[in-house]
Amino acid sequence: MTLHYPITVIEQPTEHDYNVIFNGINGFARSQGLHAAAGSYFFAVYDESHIMRAAISGFDNFGCCEIGGLWVDEPLRGQGYGRALVEKAEEWARSHNCKAITVFTLKEWPAFSWYKSLGFTVEFERADHANNMTGCYLIKKQT
Questions:
Q1: Residue 18 lies in a domain
Q2: pTM for this prediction
Q3: HEC secondary structure over 64-114
Q4: Into how many domains does the chain fold?
Q5: Residue 3 domain-assigned?
Q6: How confident is the model over 51-74, as pLDDT tens digits?
């Protein structure tokens, strides 16, 4: 197969780059009679010096809110910031009529049991990740 246009690596994609994908997928969804995704979210915690110390981001995947990333700076862990950020994502999901919230993590990481303590359950497991770890997709139904 010969491609007419080359494939280019974009080291630091811009918001415009992401919007091209987002708009393309949503345009196709609309052509199929599906409600386009409601967008994405990003919540952050800044310290008194305006340095980001924790954040969560994700998106509406056609009615299911996905957590794309959650990070809490190590000195702040265990103080409730992670839980508060997940709660913000859940509020965002409810306000965008998402039926569930999902996240991916490795079963061997502390985050796995932590998400379970927040009411997430294992939806799917996949072996053969790095270092023989197991990838887990967790879900929490919205009420």
A1: no
A2: 0.83
A3: EEEEEEEEECHHHCCCCHHHHHHHHHHHHHHHCCCCEEEEEEECCCHHHHH
A4: 1
A5: no
A6: 999 999 999 888 899 999 999 999
CATH at 104: 3.40.630.30
- Asked whether residue 94 is domain-assigned, the answer is yes
Alpha-carbon span 65 to 92, nearest angstrom: 9
DSSP letter (8 states) at residue 37? P
Q: Which domain holds residue 59?
A: 37-141
Question: Has residue 37 got a pLDDT over 80?
Answer: no
Going by C-beta distance under 8 Å and a sequence separation of 6 or more, which residues neighbour residue 105?
A: 111, 112, 115, 135, 136, 138
Q: What is the pLDDT of residues 72-122, one digit of tens each?
A: 999 999 999 999 999 999 999 999 999 999 999 999 999 999 999 999 999
Distance, in Å, from the CA atom of 108 to the CA atom of 89, rounded to the nearest integer, reads 24
